[in-house]
Amino acid sequence: MTLARAAVLLAVASLSCLLLSSPAASASVGAEVAGGAAHRNIERIAGSAGDVLEDNPVGRLKVFVYDLPSKYNKRTVTKDPRCLSHMFAAEIFMHRFLLSSAVRTLNPEEADWFYVPVYTTCDLTPAGLPLPFKSPRMMRSAIQFISNKWPFWNKTDGADHFFVVPHDFGACFHYQEEKAIERGILPMLRRATLVQTFGQKNHVCLKEGSIIIPPYAPPQKMQAHLIPPDTPRSIFVYFRGLFYDNGNDPEGGYYARGARASLWENFKNNPLFDISTDHPTTYYEDMQRAVFCLCPLGWAPWSPRLVEAVVFGCIPVIIADDIVLPFADAIPWEEIGVFVDEEDVAKLDSILTSIPIEDILRKQRLLANPSMKKAMLFPQPAQPRDAFHQILNGLARKLPHTQHVYLQPGEKHLNWTAGPVGDLKPW
């Protein structure tokens, strides 16, 4: 496939920006980033995925929010406010959202679901990275607290409870995959529903029935970098990030299962590919000028790039074998994105330049749908059909609970003393 064809694709993509734009499109984060802008030529999303984006969870479920001592949540944010802006902040904002949500009930006897607000990713290193090593003890302590103070956990062993566990490998509570697999999901959570960013098919850290959510990306920050909606998309392929993690993978090949290294080695000098380790101040602006945004796996299969690409209308190129994507029952990922197997990274130029122009235009029209952007964001205050509401929709679709959720007298499923010895130390 030639550079000439890529030039044609760029020209058509630039024209499509003009067709899809409106004067109000860059007015505010509520309008453009969170999806309230009035676009022309927006394509309706229909089918099993897409229609449910419009669901309204209010009236379909009731959630009881446990009132935990602040050491499990609010105090950790006071200690390190950086937690409010990192990619794992959904656990904080979900708690704040539910406290004032119409689905909240103060009567636990009428609750469909019980929410345990524990902030497990707020213990940060000086560099701002979470240290999940204390998280199992913290979570275990919180569950002991609610099971001693209220009767509801003990009726189901937590099967009608949900937890937000947004770390790299969810409730396996480790940022290195090998050790996360070795740990497995915290035994106390094996009957609960997990709301987690991590999703990979047939992986021990993905619990059946989990609700997969997008990582947190600050809506206000994205609003500050909006550019005029009629700006041409003059970049064919865009990516900024690590290709090698020399500090943690000095030998190479293990990080990103070699996919990022292959990207760099094959396309660092390709004029169609604007890729670099530099992270410019124009990063968000550049994404809005790009046709395709690469979303390769890193240490985990997901990253905030996926959210940013959707919000900025850049077709996400997902390179992460067996990934389970956020709200996959509501967002038609196959229609808005491009999936490339990790072993095919070296063919990425021919794969992308071979995509028919009409397919590119349709993906861009679908990405322009306001519902698509809303579903990927956790705005404050919350908005209808945003990521908070998609989580509630996911919980509502699990109702009513089947009879096997409730334990018979004397029946138990969970082993409170299972897991690594270190997890059993008091927190």
From TrEMBL:
Predominant location category: Golgi
Residues in coiled coil: none
Membrane topology qualifier: Single-pass type II membrane protein
Domain of life assignment: Eukaryota
Domain Exostosin GT47: 60-355
GO molecular function per UniProt: glycosyltransferase activity
InterPro entries, alphabetized: Exostosin (IPR004263), Exostosin_GT47 (IPR040911)
Stored Pfam families: Exostosin_GT47
Signal peptide residues on this chain, from the entry's feature table: 1-26
Localisation: Golgi apparatus membrane
Keyword Methyltransferase: no
Family the entry assigns: Belongs to the glycosyltransferase 47 family.
Protein name in UniProt: Exostosin GT47 domain-containing protein
Organism the protein comes from: Urochloa decumbens
